[in-house]
Amino acid sequence: MTTKENVLDYLEKRKGQPVSGGFMARELGVSRNAVWKAINSLRKEGHEISGGSGIGYTLSEESDLLSEAGIGGHLRKRTDLLVFESIDSTNNEAKRLAIGSPKTPLLIVSGEQTQGRGRLGRTFYSPADTGLYMSFLLKPAIKMSEASFLTIAASVAVTKAIENVTGITCGIKWVNDIYVGDKKVCGILTEAVAGIESGNLDYVIVGIGVNCHPASFPPEAGSNPGYIKEGTPRNLLAAEIANEFLPLVESMDKESILDYYRDHCIVIGKSIRIFKQGAGEQAENGASATAIGIDDSGRLIVKYPDGSTSHLSSGEISVREART
Ligand code: BTN
Description:
Elements: H1 3-13, H2 21-28, H3 32-45, E1 49-52, E2 56-59, H4 68-72, E3 80-84, H5 90-98, E4 106-110, E5 131-138, H6 147-166, E6 171-173, E7 177-180, E8 183-194, E9 201-211, H7 234-251, H8 254-264, E10 271-275, E11 287-294, E12 300-303, E13 309-312, E14 316-319
Parallel strand pairs: 3-4
Antiparallel strand pairs: 1-2, 4-5, 5-9, 6-7, 7-8, 8-9, 10-11, 10-14, 11-12, 12-13
Helix pairs in contact: 1-3, 2-3, 6-7, 6-8
């Protein structure tokens, strides 16, 4: 780590507390001048550091610039991590990196995406400063048919992480949207990198986009976008998502993942419309049905007005009315 990274790491671990420049210099084994230069450079990058020599330096509790030190300091297990201020798409970056056979799991985080992608070929609105955009590059020992469980595990992990960090209870709309009340605050896009010849699943990329702070959402941001709450600490949330998600990937304990998912699924018991749609296709007028459960493969069980049922593994649904 560079001196600047070390200084940020040091301050992150003591966020909100004044730290003497001289003491920090001794602890980090660098000169006071090097600490001073690092502080100046961090301030220029936008980190909110108050104080000065004599009174100590304090990284503001409200400072919310994403950084490796800021996220890494909260990770329960050391994880390879890359943090960008802005990037085209963290899922794209994961795909590019996959070519070089990197160590996995690898977490890629950005404070902005210029070409954020959503499901079904849609754009995912990813403005600077208000959201958290992250992708896990994984090499899980699972079959292609099980990959959808990673999306479910990610929904569970994000829901738990938001609750751990903010106390807010979220709902999961099948299959991969997280809601606070009736507003979507997070979407998940899982993509596979498969060997063309072997047909094996080489890597899986789980991309997660969370709207954290208030933003003015343009029409392309979807039908009902929302945000978690003002002041949501993005570094902590990113780490907490990893802390919840990576153990689930390791254990792949489908039963407990599904239990949590079913408990938090907001569509069960509701009247819905089903839109079967491929990338780039126009949605057809949806068939009406009632969502009656989630099966053991994570598929949505629906009942049609004629009494017949089916198990849906993909597609879009819209909820028509509140549960009675
Ligand atoms: C959706 O709601 O349709 C899924 C949105 C997924 C967005 C995330 S943000 C991080 C990662 N990079 C992307 O380009 N997309 C995913």
